[in-house]
Amino acid sequence: MQRGRFITLEGLDGSGKTTQLKRLAAWMQKRGITPVVTRQPGGTATGDRIRELLLDSRSGNLAPLAEMALMFADRAQAIAEVIEPALAAGKTVLCDRFTDSTEAYQGGGRELGSEPVLAMHRVFCGGLQPDLTLLLLPSLKASLERARRRNDRATAHSGKDEGRFEREQEDFYGRVWNKYIEIARRDSDRVVCIEGDLTIDEVHEQIIEAVAMRIFEAANAAS
Fold this sequence. Notes:
Layout: E1 6-11, H1 17-30, E2 36-39, H2 45-55, H3 64-88, E3 93-96, H4 99-109, H5 114-124, E4 132-137, H6 140-158, H7 170-186, E5 191-195, H8 200-222
Parallel strand pairs: 1-3, 1-4, 2-3, 4-5
Helix pairs in contact: 1-8, 2-3, 3-5, 4-5, 4-7
């Protein structure tokens, strides 16, 4: 059986990843492909408990190295429980965040550097890399405003606080932004960067173009 395809969506909080992931999954389903959709942190019972700890604003004293270690603990569980079994079964996996997020947020934002993140990736993830990463980069200001509004609504609705990262200052997010750009330039064969304050439809069109060209046309050419 041919191994499945692994596609990740990346970007700052508030960049529109969740909306675009849903639209991409629906686009695939109309074409007879039922993807496995997951997220990080989370996506497993263990991962959801780690997510709650990582994103809750009450986890204010979490050391950067501890934060990074928890991200990789979640990721290792997701790979073992969800991602690798699906890929081995020939399924397409769509994942909201993967190691690029850790390199951007902990490596860049927390200033731990890329090398510790990439070293942990080799150990915890066995070097597993997405076949395609869609990096959404609207303006920093627009992303943060949207993320904070979203979390305020979610907290009011559910009582669950997932706003720990959104409370960081803009210099933190500036470092995250710059690290994402560095990743996109370094791994340009894998990462498609979609920049600017585009409409939802405009972003979706660019995503579909990238997926159709880099995943499905490449698969047809190889078969």
